[in-house]
């Protein structure tokens, strides 16, 4: 079924929207959740919660890209669950390693200005990503958005693990330099 029709089902409050979303994007959302959580049961629960959040968000939202909309919901739910599991010392996923790698490149959050600074940072990150060649941009997004392991990235790119690690290191350095040029304090 086409995404536009699935969105219409949500707007019509037709429960078939959930079944269609699950059939078309269940595997995609599960992969996002599992990469973050590494626990099948938690990943499945986050995917189930994704359909509920989508149901609550439409209307009023009418996403232009349903896959991105559902993926973002799944990712946010999974990161919330990851934080809770991490606090309980049960975490086993890729998220901490990937987020630690980026920690040295990104400014610390805090205070009243956090929202304004977050928006400016998002715009700066988008400019940085737009400046990269497609392969480097995809590598960066797969690692730091989808939280793919270095081994998965090596298999995807056909390169050795060390080559991928070095490329990611250089990308983080480039990001840090970009952010410093744009006035972000690291």
UniProtKB/TrEMBL annotation:
Protein name: Sigma-70 family RNA polymerase sigma factor
Annotated keywords: DNA-binding, Sigma factor, Transcription, Transcription regulation
GO terms of molecular function: DNA binding; sigma factor activity
One GO BP: DNA-templated transcription initiation
Gene3D superfamilies: 1.10.1740.10, Winged helix-like DNA-binding domain superfamily/Winged helix DNA-binding domain
UniProt cross-references to Pfam families, sorted A to Z: Sigma70_r2
Domain RNA polymerase sigma-70 region: 25-86
Signal peptide: none
Classification via InterPro entries: RNA_pol_sigma-70-like (IPR039425), RNA_pol_sigma-70_dom (IPR014284), RNA_pol_sigma70_r2 (IPR007627), RNA_pol_sigma_r2 (IPR013325), RNA_pol_sigma_r3/r4-like (IPR013324), WH-like_DNA-bd_sf (IPR036388)
Similarity annotation: Belongs to the sigma-70 factor family. ECF subfamily.
Phylogenetic lineage: Bacteria, Bacillati, Bacillota, Clostridia, Eubacteriales
């Amino acid at each position: 079924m086409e995404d536009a029709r699935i969105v219409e089902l949500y707007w019509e409050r037709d429960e078939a929207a959930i079944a269609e979303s699950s059939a078309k994007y269940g595997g995609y959302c599960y992969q996002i959740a599992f990469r973050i959580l590494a626990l099948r049961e938690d990943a499945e629960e986050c995917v189930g919660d994704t359909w509920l959040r989508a149901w609550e968000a439409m209307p009023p939202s009418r996403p232009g890209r349903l896959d991105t909309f559902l993926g973002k919901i799944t990712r946010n739910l999974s990161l919330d669950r990851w934080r809770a599991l991490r606090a309980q010392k049960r975490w086993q996923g890729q998220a901490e390693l990937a987020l630690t790698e980026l920690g040295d490149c990104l400014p610390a959050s805090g205070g009243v200005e956090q929202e304004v600074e977050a928006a400016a940072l998002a715009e700066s990150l988008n400019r940085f990503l737009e400046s990269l060649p497609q392969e480097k941009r995809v590598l960066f997004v797969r690692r730091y958005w989808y939280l793919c392991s270095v081994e998965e990235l090596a298999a995807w790119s056909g390169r050795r693990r060390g080559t991928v690690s070095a490329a990611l290191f250089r990308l983080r350095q480039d990001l840090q330099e970009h952010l410093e040029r744009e006035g972000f304090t690291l």
